[in-house]
Structures are given as structure tokens and as C-alpha cells.
Amino acid sequence: MAKTGRGNEKNMSGVSRREMLKIMGAGAIGTLFPGAGHGQSSGSFSTSGGDGLIFLVGDGMPLGVIKGMHQVRTRVYGEKGTNFYSKMKAPYSMVGYMSTESLSSIVTDSAPASVTWSTGVKTLNRVMASLPDGRPLKTIMELVKEQGYACGLVTTTRVTHATPAAWITHQLNRDNEDAIALDYLKFKPEVLMGGGSRFFDPLRRKDGKDLFKGFSNEGYDVVRERADLLNPEIGSSKKSLLGIFTSSHISYYLDRLNQAELGKKQPTLPEMTRVALQKLSKNPKGFILQVEAGRIDHANHSNDAWAAILDTCELDLTLAVIDEYLKANPKTIVIVTSDHGTSGWGINGTGPEYNDSIEALKKYQPIKASFEVIKTRLKKEMALAEIKDVFEYFTTFRITDEEASMIQAAMQPDYRPFHGDYVFQPDAVMGKILAHSLYDKRKGMMEGPALIRRGNVGFTSTNHTGEDQILLSYGYKANQLGLNRHVDNTYLFTAMCKFFGIQHQNPTMTEEEAKPFIKTASLEEWRRHMELHIA
Amino acid sequence: MAKTGRGNEKNMSGVSRREMLKIMGAGAIGTLFPGAGHGQSSGSFSTSGGDGLIFLVGDGMPLGVIKGMHQVRTRVYGEKGTNFYSKMKAPYSMVGYMSTESLSSIVTDSAPASVTWSTGVKTLNRVMASLPDGRPLKTIMELVKEQGYACGLVTTTRVTHATPAAWITHQLNRDNEDAIALDYLKFKPEVLMGGGSRFFDPLRRKDGKDLFKGFSNEGYDVVRERADLLNPEIGSSKKSLLGIFTSSHISYYLDRLNQAELGKKQPTLPEMTRVALQKLSKNPKGFILQVEAGRIDHANHSNDAWAAILDTCELDLTLAVIDEYLKANPKTIVIVTSDHGTSGWGINGTGPEYNDSIEALKKYQPIKASFEVIKTRLKKEMALAEIKDVFEYFTTFRITDEEASMIQAAMQPDYRPFHGDYVFQPDAVMGKILAHSLYDKRKGMMEGPALIRRGNVGFTSTNHTGEDQILLSYGYKANQLGLNRHVDNTYLFTAMCKFFGIQHQNPTMTEEEAKPFIKTASLEEWRRHMELHIA
After folding, report:
1. For residue B67, which residues of chain A lie inside 8 Å, CB to CB?
2. Mean pLDDT, chain B, as a whole number?
3. Distance CA B382, CA B171 (A)
4. Which ipTM was obtained for this model?
């Protein structure tokens, strides 16, 4: 996309999401995106004989954003319900809570969170499937692969990002994504899909290796575009599959919905999941598949409520595809969870008696792009008038000079927000402005019904948070695994071993033993990591 | 307490919480307060024949503050665990989730939230046990009383506050607390304990009625001080009990721990609960008891993390008393929940790799008073130096002139915070300053281990929030009530009816039917309500 300001608006998709809704005569996001719903063209599921385990992660998906997604779908778009809530309420489902501390912090990073699931062991923030002293930990994917099960990883982040990678790699620093891509080539998962071509492309890798060729040489189908993925031959091919659709992360669902060129090139999470299940279920013994809606976390880091809601919506639509699979393959268990909270996330009560809360939530609806996209149009040299124009174009909200100044200030290199933990800028400032439920001043300090101008989702920071996360499971043997109470995240490894009938105990270290291995980064180095993390 | 500034510090309790810890040679909050633990002097429990239902509410207690309490107890005070987490993990416990929407808003007020439990019906924000059109709804307490069960209400708020009152009263506006006190006199619950003497005292009531005398005339024991409550004769007396210990709400647990005169006069929630159970269990048929840790909500409205953590701690200590009761009386069920979230509440990841998160949480420990108390020492005319001194005295943190200016500005009558929903001031500004994890500047922008000065709990607003709340139940018939999944808050009425073998269906209204009855207050009127709410 072009990088200058307002003049390029014609480069944006000519059809806004709102207009699409109108065209399609439907209020449901679910019907918006081709193939997001049921029965799409790339094929239905046949019955296989093996046992399947689907592990669905909403990265950084605290309770608040799940509820936000549900309220938007039901109250704003008028849908009857959501898959998430149907499952949470179903008599056959198990619901529980999960604690998420790592070995170095009560607030975990995604790396050790995913390591607890994949190995049953706590390690330090940033470390992958290894103990703090470097001893590698055997992962559930390594264990089941030895027994002949197929393995798959699907994500909307770079495939080399921490959450999927921790199921396979033993790198001591999650940022070694070049090395992680090589680890994948060595491990050979049957399905690997997401973003991150920069770690496969010989022109972008530091070692100049061509990993696309590498996977191809190992007998993989390699796809780079949505259209190729949806080609029925890919689903029915007996080869393993590498699908890498973007240089870095897959775009936010919000942006794929609004920019036709993105939506055309990049598949949805439900689409990737469908093809993954078609392929993995060919293994007669069975499979394990991790599916990650990985950018809910990023949107929350950015305090971008609407992008977070829509990425959570994409996770919800994925549940429908999984349900379809379960109908044909009842010997499958589904585990849904989140690795940690990100940035708090609350729908704040709005207006007198909180009675304007729904109206305020509705105000996010006309937003045309994620902060990730809006930021590409904002420049630190811009005049206030230009900032106001850009903000209005993408959000429909005309902001004040004072608000534009706040955005301008937050873009300057020397900007240090008062609240030290709001590191993602100007994102957090934009999030704050959007959550500012301004009332119509013409009527005085407000009487009668809602006259609010903006949304109401608030954030506690731009960092991860320490509260417990949701745990939902259903399907084959779900009632035998002890997931219907409060568990530590390490217990999920135990439960998965139980499902597969595997016994394995990795070595552990105590917090005290781990301390000498904690190498705390400088704040500047940490900032660079954080920027890389979501960019 | 005197209302002027620093000069009165000697009027404060001479013994700080820290010094108390030292004196008592214990790191556990649980051992701090006389009678908070097990086996205290006011007597143990004998076995009764009836069925008991204990409904324990943490008002405005989202997941984040429960976790904060657990982390503080285990990581800061070195305790082995908490009652809350033991119960959440116990194989015999049922855990679930609960949605909290009211009929007028996706973000509920405490009044209709409590009405859903007590009647199974959704109504408008601020309305008590009635439909929006005024039709009264029969409450579970009315239903069980008719069948001969005893009823009890215990809270740390005014007893006339919405959460306890909705189990009995049908007032259309929760703020009619004078009338609610009269409704209690009419209903005659066997136990009624908490704060709020101003609605019982003839000198404070608008109608001049003496409700203490009124209850006394109806055969109640009336107690006004902790010492009287702990008199064994009260526990063993066959009379009903009215215990009103403060003019408005009971002080925060934090302030009762730090100010000896408060702790001496006002009982703890565990103490009130113990006496309530002793009395109610005398009824051979059984009883229903609502116990509310009602000020977690207030502390969260004020963005006062430490006060919220300690009030949640008091709820946790109450669980121990209840457990003791259950051992002697196994035909008892316990339901623990929260009516809604308040102000988001997240322990933010702190510092590089989030590795300073525990250190930051520890920084709350030396705080000597709630914002409620600190505010009585801050005056809007104060110079910055004075504001800095007061803040430092109570928190130990020396703030900057800029920070003191923020507090000063937030105290001015015309103050309008940018973020429109941070209505409680200067509370929210103080909360923000405390959550500002400043690093030691001498070492440059930070290298090496934690050098942070302050805490890390962030808030999304000073309002209620819309996410689902925790649901925990255990004891008699707990596994027969369907509370081990996601339920709507109205379902708790159904579950309680099931427990008591009662069949009752109240009339309902749809959101559409309710709309004409929504009378939205002006913002100014709402502000007055909010101030009254927590003051």
C-alpha cells in the first residue's frame, strides 16, 4: 500500500465493509467473507478412523474481548448467537480456568505459555521448549509424531512466532525466527500455515537459504496465495503442506474484509483450518493440530478494540468449521484457550446508568481499518489538520485539535507517555480517543437518550496481563481429562498425553533454580522486541 | 478522623500494618487481624439438621482482582495458597461462567444483577426486585421464608445497598435507602449485618423514625460495635440479629488493619459471617444467607488496587469460616460469584520481558491507607509540596511536581478528565500514578534487575465492565444444579429454587417492552448517584 496521506484513499478498497453489508443484504459478519461460513467450495469432510486433537488458541484473548465479540455479533449485527457461547453453554462441554504464570514472571510471554502446553514445564519468558539452562524439553508434537500421528500448525501470525513454534522448536530465544524456520524443515509437520515468508525467502533470510525450495524438496506442496490453497487439489493431495501467505503476519481480519486485494491474497483462519483438517485426517492413526488466532494479542497490544473484536470473530467462525469436522469425525477433541490476557480489555459502562453501553459499542462499527493500517497514513511531520483528516477517513470521527496534538506527540521519537507501560504509540493514544464517549454538548451536559460519538472499550496498558484465562473443551474423551476446573497451564500437556495414551515427564526447574539464567534485557532492547513482535 | 492535612498524622494508628506484621512475626495477612482465621473466640459451629445455602458475592470482583489477591498472598506474603484457589481446583467444586447483562444495558448495575439472582428476572439498571413497569417480583428469600427457612444478609456496605437489598425489597430506585430499611423491618430477616446506621437512626432519617428501636421492638438483638457482636451471648441468643456498625459503608479492610480504632469498632466479614451462621443454623429447616464483600467494587471504582486486593482477601478469609461451618454441617451449599466487573483490573506485565511484574506488585505493600482515607487529607487548595507530602506519607512514594499537579487538577470542581469515563477523581489519577512503573534514572533508561518504584495494576475506567464473571459452587447438591458451565445470571435463581425444591416462575419483560420505562438520568444526576454509591 502507498505510504502517503489522504491523496491515496482511492487506492483503498472501493467497497467499504458497510457497503458490502448493504450489497449482501445481511447483517452478519459470518456471511461477509467468502468461505467463512459453512459448506464453502474447498470441500466438506469425510470420516477418518484416527483420533484427532484440535488445540485452538486465541492469543492474548481475555474474557473481555470474547464478550465484546459476542455482543457485537448479537447486538450490533443482530446474529442469533456465537459459536463460542453455544459451546460454553452446551451440556457436553467442559469449562474451566487456567493460570498462566511463567517461571520468571507472574505475567507470561507467549513463548513460555505455549511451552507449558507443549511440554508440561514452565520456563522463562522468551524461551522455547527448553529449560532456562538450555536443556531441551520433549514436546507433545515430538511425542505423538514418534507414534505415527500427523502434526499441524495453523496461525494468523508468522508461522515462526512463539505460540505455534513452541510446539516444535527448542530455540532459547523466540526471536530467532530464521532458526525456527529451519527447525520446522527438520521436524516436517504435515501442515504448516500462516505468515512469515521473510524467514523462508532466500532474499530475506540472513543465511540466504531458500526454505520454500527446501520444503518442496522434502515433498511438500508449497502455496503462497489464497486461491492456490482453495484449489481442491491441495486439499486432496497426499503431500504435506506449507502455506505462507504474507511476508510477516497475516493482515487483521478487519483489513482483509475492507481491502479486497488483501482478502483475495490471504486466506481466512477458517479456510486454513478446513484445509488443515482435510489433510491431517488422512492419517489413519490420527493427528494433533494447533490453530491460533494469533493477532487478537497484537490488536490488544495496540489498544485497537475493533481489530481485536474482528480477529476474535474469525476464531469464532473457525469453531464452525471445526464443528463440521467433528460431525464427520466424532473421535476428535477440541480444546480452546488463551495463553494470557493482553491490555486488560473491558467494555466500560457508558453514560448515565450505563444505559448507553450498547450504543457506544456500536460506534466502532464504521471503522474501516486497523491501527496498523491507519499508522501507515500518519506521519510524524503531519499538520494537525491532516491528522484529523486521516483519523476521520478511517474512523468517521472528527477529532479535536487537542486530540490530534496527542496523536502527533505520540508519534515523535522522543515521546514518553506518562503511563510508562503504554509503549505502543500512537496506537494507545488512538485507542484512548476512540474510547472517549463524548456526549453532544449542544444539549448541555446531556439529557435524554444516547448522543454519544464514540466507543467504550478501555485498556489497562499495552502489555500482557496476569489474570486467569478461559478453558473450554468438548468432543471425544473431553469429560475424562479433568479440564472442568481451575488448572495450571502445564496441566494441558498432561491432559493431552492422557488423550493420546502417552506417558512422559519432562525435567523441571524451580523459580529459584531458574533465577541465575534470567537475562533481563534493557528497556530499549525490549522496545525493539515489542515492535518486532506485532509488526 | 480530623479533616486537615499532615499535622494530624499522629492521630492515625501508631502501628502501621508493616509494624504489626513485624510484631506478630508473621507474613500472612490471614493471621494479622484478630479473629480472621480459624477457631476464634466467638465460638465454633455445632451441627444442625437443616439445609443451608450460602451465597457469597464479591461485588465488582473481576478475574483480575481475584488473581491479584492470590499473587499478593502467595508471592508477597509467602502464604502457601488461598481458599479461593483451593476451591477452584478442588475435584468436588463446580466452576462456570456467568453473563451479567441487565435489561437496559450490556453493562449492569449492581441492582438488576442482584435481582437476577433473587428473582430469575432481568430488569433495568437501578431497579430492585421489580419489573420495569413496577410489578414486584417474588424473591427467593420471600419464597423460602414462606416455607420456614431463615434468611440472612451480611455485607461490608450499607445493608441498604443494592446487592443485599435486592433479595428483599421491591423499591424502583436503589437509592431509596430510607425506604429499603423500612422494608427490612417489614420482612424481618433473621440476620441483617453491615453498615448504614444513617438509614436506621432517627436523627439521620428523613421521616425521623427510630429503626433501631423498631427492630428491638420486634424482638431483635441490636448490636452497634464489634465487641458486642463477638460477645458469645449474641451468637447463642435465639433472637434475630441486627448489626449496624458504621454510618455508611464499613471501612476498607486496608483501613481497618491500619487504624486500630476502626478495627476495634468494626467487625470483619469473616466475623460477621461466623455469627450469622451460628444464628441461622438454629433454624431446624435450614436457611439462606447472602454474604457480600461489597467494597471490592468501590475500591475498583476508585482505581485503588491495594484496597481492592485487601477487600478480596477478606472475602477469601470468609471462605475459611464457611469451610469450618461446612465440616460441621455438610448439608450446605456454597455459591461464590461476582455481579459484574469494575474498572477492568489487570496486573500489567512490567519491565523488560515482563520480568519485573512481581516486584511491581510488591510495591503496593507499604501503602498505609485507601484512597478514601487519603482523600480526606487532600484539599483542593493545597500547594504541590503539601500534596507530595501527603501522598508520600500514605504510600511511601515521592511523586514529582508534575504528578502532584495532576492530583491537584483532578480535585478542582471544574475538572473534566480527557477520558470521559474516569469519573472518580482524584482517585483515578492517584491509581494511575501508582501504576506508573518508574525506573531508576541514575542507571540510564534501565539495565539489570528491577529498580522500579511503583506498582502495575491498570484500570480500563472507573465504571463497571461487561465481561462474564466467575461462578464457583461446592457442597450439598452442588453437582446437581447445572452450575458447571456458562450460564446467564438469571439461572442462579433457578438453581437455588432447585436446591430448595421450590417451583416458581416470575413474570418477565423483553428489552423491547422495557424501553419505554428507561428514564435516563442526566450526567450530573448520575455523578451524584455515583458519589453517593461509594461514599
Report:
1. 99, 466-468
2. 89
3. 42
4. 0.91
